[in-house]
């Protein structure tokens, strides 16, 4: 038995069982309930797994009440302000920040794998011109399993490392190809001389007809957004990656399953919802009216991008990206974009309003990320693809951790069956 236990008693029979308590580095302790069914014949019921720890993990910790997000113990504020996306990716994958030599080696390893097989260009031609980019991203990522058969050897640490490099390197190339397919423009090949984020911007926005110059403010803003989205504990898409991976499937299929889960509007579509809300507001003069609607409990209108289901305080990621958002808008100027003007007016009024302050309904990372993407010229339908790019190192780290954990087994959630009771088949003539 563990040093601490919880005793559960069945009031119908008087039988009791002691369940061990496990303690982590931070956060609530957990009660192991594996013996509950063996001792009592009961399953636990927790719709949405909101009170259930499905795994143990060393990667990310969130304290929503205190507004804390840690990657491998490092506060997100420090990483976003001082680090780069590739350095954070190394941290998530390896558990420690790299030395200068290790980071150089990691950069070279990623750079070597940015190209995708030429036949994948034909794969994109199979998509309709207005196919959703997440459909393309999900399908093409899954198709990588047809090119890299060695990735199936998931118990080989060397192969897992190589797979992580391949996926991290190719995701921007695949995403940019999906964008160019949407735009009806020729694909742009990756350039090894550019940084990870510069390369992404170049593949998205450069054209054969004219040179494209990387704006350092835009590059830094995008790099920060990728860092802020890199991992977020056991959310829906990460849990999907883990559950799919528990079957022993190839990692490309697992990452594709994460893309599919992220595609859902309740998960990865939050920043898109912000832009839809701004469009609904329509005019900067309408902001007071819509703030009043948001305060009216009988009005179905809600301010999107304010508050957070996990963070009951200020979203720590929003503190960082707010300044970056204003840097981007100041660089571009917002006088000719009504939606961005509405967003800034909405932010200012909400931050000064006692109603929102008392309820801690502050702008979250989705509010600012949607505005930044809009300002950079990224279409709304593509926002979730950008989210997936950022979340890729987190998915890979979680996959690698799960495959390496001897405690993990194939996922098999239970259920509370509420369907018809057992009954006998009735011949069709007698129904």
Automatic annotation (TrEMBL):
One of its GO terms (cellular component) is cytoplasm. Gene3D superfamilies: 2.20.28.60, Citrate Synthase, domain 1, Cytochrome P450-Terp, domain 2. Pfam families: Citrate_synt (PF00285). GO terms for molecular function: citrate synthase activity. GO terms for biological process: tricarboxylic acid cycle. Pathway: Carbohydrate metabolism; tricarboxylic acid cycle; isocitrate from oxaloacetate: step 1/2. Keywords: Transferase, Tricarboxylic acid cycle. The active site is at residues 308, 366. It catalyses: oxaloacetate + acetyl-CoA + H2O = citrate + CoA + H(+). InterPro entries: Citrate_synth-like_lrg_a-sub, Citrate_synth-like_sm_a-sub, Citrate_synthase, Citrate_synthase_AS, Citrate_synthase_bac-typ, Citrate_synthase_sf, Citrate_synthase_typ-I. Belongs to the citrate synthase family. This is Citrate synthase.
